[in-house]
From TrEMBL:
Membrane-spanning intervals of the chain: 188-208
Domain MobA-like NTP transferase: 28-135
Keyword Acyltransferase: no
Metal-binding is among the record's keywords: no
Record-given protein name: Nucleotidyltransferase family protein
Source organism (scientific name): Sphingopyxis jiangsuensis
SUPFAM superfamilies cross-referenced by the UniProt entry: Nucleotide-diphospho-sugar transferases
Gene3D superfamilies associated with the record: Spore Coat Polysaccharide Biosynthesis Protein SpsA, Chain A
Keywords of this entry: Magnesium, Membrane, Transmembrane, Transmembrane helix
Pfam families the record matches: NTP_transf_3 (PF12804)
InterPro entries: MobA-like_NTP_Trfase (IPR025877), Nucleotide-diphossugar_trans (IPR029044)
Length: 257
């Protein structure tokens, strides 16, 4: 049996005001209540419930404030560490110096389940960089009201599911590159264009599937990159907008928690 994989939860705040926090009484998104508990609690609980996950580290600009939350303090084996301002730089600094794999997720990935984690890790084997994504028809079949950012490729439109598997130092060049284009994370074509004109043309003309495109982008940095399609529509529903929280709480109520 494969040894449990360590996990990193990115729980920092992006620059600028966050409309989700208006009138909430909390200072950081990770502590925003969803279904009666801080969103980060839901994520850590799902990670802790998975037998595939080992040590958990939460990264945030003010990790002490997050660790002081009583529900989070109850997770005695979770480590809290301060991050920098940039997601990519903070994550790169937290990766192991060898090629050991790390599971990465975010504090707003509140619908995460152990089943999702298992499906993703099974699909991510033997890759240097793996990214979980949901195809549009999978989401719309269950939640047609959910609005996501889509990357359009031959054979489907895809949205990120906030799960990543990175093999330590091998992923650092790609993270350094991501740090330079991070501000355009919601603008799919700008991200694709940053990998070069050949990839952009292939996507615009629908010549490439997302699997081919990501593999080609990875080769530019000497890594084996892979997309892992997720079967659960909920995998790409994160707490990004007020309407997301309404939907998430409805889904949680249907789950019985």
């Amino acid at each position: 049996m494969t040894a449990p994989i360590p996990a990193i939860v990115m729980a920092g705040s992006r620059p600028g005001p966050d409309p989700l926090l208006d009138g909430s009484g909390v200072a950081t998104k990770a502590l925003l209540p969803i279904a009666g508990e801080a969103m980060l609690v839901h994520v850590v609980r799902a990670l802790r419930a998975s037998p595939r996950v080992g040590a958990i580290t939460v990264l945030a600009q003010n990790s002490r404030a997050i660790a002081a939350d009583p529900a989070l303090a109850a997770f005695e084996d979770v480590r809290f560490a301060d991050s920098g301002q940039g997601i990519s730089a903070s994550l790169a600094a937290a990766l192991p110096d060898d090629d050991a794999p790390v599971l990465v997720t975010t504090a707003d990935n509140v619908l995460l389940t152990p089943a999702m984690i298992g499906e993703f890790l099974d699909g991510a084997e033997d890759s240097d960089v793996a990214v979980a994504m949901v195809e549009r028809t999978v989401l719309l079949a269950r939640y047609p009201e959910s609005r996501r950012t889509w990357l359009k490729f031959r054979g489907g439109w895809w949205s990120g599911a906030n799960l990543f598997r990175l093999r330590g130092r091998r992923a650092r060049p790609l993270l350094d590159f991501w740090g330079r284009i991070e501000r355009d994370r919601k603008k799919g074509l700008r991200i694709i264009a940053a990998f070069g004109p050949a990839l952009l043309i292939g996507v615009l003309l629908r010549l490439l599937t997302i699997h081919q495109g990501v593999a080609r982008a990875g080769r530019r940095f000497g890594v084996k990159a892979r997309i892992v399609p997720m079967s659960a529509a909920e995998a790409c529903i994160d707490a990004d907008k007020p309407e997301d929280i309404v939907l998430i709480e409805r889904i949680m109520a249907g789950r019985g928690f």
